Amino acid sequence: MMQPLLRNTFAYASSRSAISRCGTLKLSVRLLSSSYTNLKICRYRELVADTPMVDLTHLVAKDANSELANSNVRVFAKVEFLNPGFSIKDRIVQNILNKAEDEGKLKKGMIAVAASSGNTGASTAMMCAMRGYECIITTSPKCSKEKMDAIKAYGAKLLVSEPGVEEGDPKHYIEMARLMALEDPELYFDIDQYDTLSNPEGHFLTLGPEIWQQTNGLVTHFVAAGSTGGTISGTAKYLKQQNPEVKAVLADPVGSIFTEYFKKGSYGKPKDFLVEGVGKGTIPGAMNFDIIDDVIPVNDQEAFDTCFRLSRKEGICAGGSSGLNVFASLQLAASLDPNTPAVIVTVLPDLGVKYLSKFYNDEWLTENGLKPPSAGQI
Ligand SMILES: Cc1ncc(COP(=O)(O)O)c(C=O)c1O
């Protein structure tokens, strides 16, 4: 039987590279035809990061005075839902797991535990499947059915907290994961996305450099909503190290405490909002407010309407936080001097398919007091 001597030189280490999605597969070709050499084929897990950037500048026109259509302001977005787990969270989970394995904190036989609004849970479940770990994900009842089902599809165990539990309560999904890991640290490894600095570091090492390279260093503003704060904190840190003039703008759902905390240094009780995965009721350890230059609050209707614009005008079916980020970016673009060159970069954190039963469903919108998309609105 022919036994080709395959040697994939893009073994595990290359999955840590931010620069190339898929390296050339080098084959030891003693028995193989030379036509198999130099194939760009890799393991699925090596596809994390190195996402495309798309131009959304023409969407500015509707939200701004007509001059802006011809202005020097550009709005670009990183298509983060093209990561293997269909969200930006693959970047941080990869970094957290790599570091934990390298430092001996995560060993074979241990169980990874992650509290998540859904995407980190799916990334953790996917990467644990790839690496041979069991995992338990805790989430809130706000998490869409699609995200819950995806977590289970990767073979993870899913625990959903009761509705209406406040952050800090032992029955809150974040506390559930923390307490489980505290109870038996030899058995459980806590992904701890809200507080670990390996979270912003994942973006510092990958998303920041990619944005810098893809814009040839012309980026002037980075816009992102926050939950853990890892995306904005890690990415802005990298970009500001390259050019201290780069501004970091936090897009924030109306109801989240981040806006009030940024403006007043204090905050009251959070209010309900429907966009998933962003905004918070406490300040996570991964969030660095010192690096944030401004905050733009965005309400549910504005975020979802922008998703409908993206899907119906661009063919981009993205999650609610993408609409929120793009709305804030368009607002920012409208506020800038059209004669001064500016490059605003934002992220499309996850895939709209994760919300087909929610805001992409007219009945769900109406039940929740929101307007379905109509041609006029778009
Ligand atoms: C859909 C979505 N968008 C944005 C974010 C915010 O990212 P970060 O936690 O890095 O602030 C999250 C985080 O859970 C998310 O799930």
Automatic annotation (TrEMBL):
It comes from the Eukaryota. This is Tryptophan synthase beta chain-like PALP domain-containing protein. It comes from Sphaeroforma arctica JP610. Residues 48-350 form the Tryptophan synthase beta chain-like PALP domain. InterPro entries: Cys_Synth/Cystath_Beta-Synth, TrpB-like_PALP, TrpB-like_PALP_sf.
